[in-house]
Design a protein that fits this description.
Blueprint (H helix, E strand, L loop, with lengths): L8 H7 L14 H5 L5 E5 L5 H9 L4 E6 L2 H11 L27 E5 L5 H4 L5 E7 L17 H10 E11 L2 H14 L2 E6 L6 H4 L6 H8 L5 E6 L1
Parallel strand pairs: 1-2, 1-4, 2-3, 4-5
Antiparallel strand pairs: 5-7, 6-7
The structure holds S-adenosylmethionine.
């Protein structure tokens, strides 16, 4: 993902009612944030938010939390949720309007800026029903393997916050990363419920599929999309 410093992005995040600024303070109390006891699902590495915003719109009885490491990326999702009022792409325009009193049009969605390595500081055991990983960064060098979001190190973190029947769903067009992800499962004590190497050619698995930004881009180039659903 191309990263650039976006003027005003920090302030936009701080002022957006969708963004939880101090997520560690809410650990164990996320249902209070949403004001209901609906299940909580995360997307880790949500990018500009196309997937999680659409998932939240389609599933009003589920609470969604998008996690993204970079404010310059997260702010794009905030912009989408504000109805695209602000133009950032080729200007230095800084957020100058109200966002604080904005009513949440997508009431079952919150966003946090976080490095997923800190997941267990933000979510208590059994607080999460499902985790989505979409087109995670491949980190191709072997010495960076533990930074890959489907690595055994991250699976151990997911294990801590998920309910016992919790699932992780992972999509990517990167075959090397997907093969690595499959190899990690027995090492971390997980089992695959579903594995496909060509999601878009499988009508049953495509039912209800929500495309991410990267999925749209890479499937349009003809790349097959791999997906797994795993549990313990
Ligand atoms: C290749 S992009 C994919 C974006 C989106 N999920 C999609 O499919 O279109 C991967 C995103 O994951 C984020 N990311 C990578 N490592 C992360 C981590 N440890 N914690 C949180 N976000 C992370 C990156 O900043 C980037 O925005």
């Amino acid at each position: 993902m191309r990263l650039r410093n976006i003027p005003g992005s920090e302030e936009a995040l701080y002022r957006s009612p969708y963004v939880i600024d101090e997520p560690k303070e809410v650990k164990g109390r996320w249902q209070e944030v949403f004001g209901n006891d609906h299940p909580i699902r995360l997307e880790i590495g949500m990018g500009k938010g196309q997937f999680i915003i659409e998932m939240a719109n389609r599933n009003p009885d589920v609470n969604f939390i998008g996690i993204e490491m970079y404010s310059s990326v997260l702010v794009r999702a905030v912009q989408k949720l504000s109805g695209g009022r602000h133009v950032w792409e080729d200007t230095d325009e800084v957020i100058a309007e109200e966002t604080t009193d904005e009513k949440l049009a997508v009431a079952n969605l919150r966003l946090i800026r976080l490095d997923a390595r800190e997941l267990c500081d933000v979510f208590a055991p059994y607080e999460v029903e499902k985790i989505y990983l979409n087109f995670s960064d491949p980190w191709p060098k072997d010495r960076h393997a533990k930074r890959r979001l489907p690595s055994k190190q991250f699976l151990a973190l997911y294990d801590k916050v998920l309910i016992p029947e919790g699932k992780v769903e992972f999509k990517t067009d990167n075959r090397d990363l997907f093969d690595f992800a499959i190899e990690q499962l027995p090492l971390a004590g997980w089992k695959a419920d579903v594995v496909t190497y060509d999601l878009h050619a499988d009508p049953a698995l495509m039912e209800g599929n929500v495309m991410t930004e990267y999925e749209q881009k890479f499937s349009a180039k003809g790349n097959p999309i791999c997906k797994y659903v795993i549990g313990r």
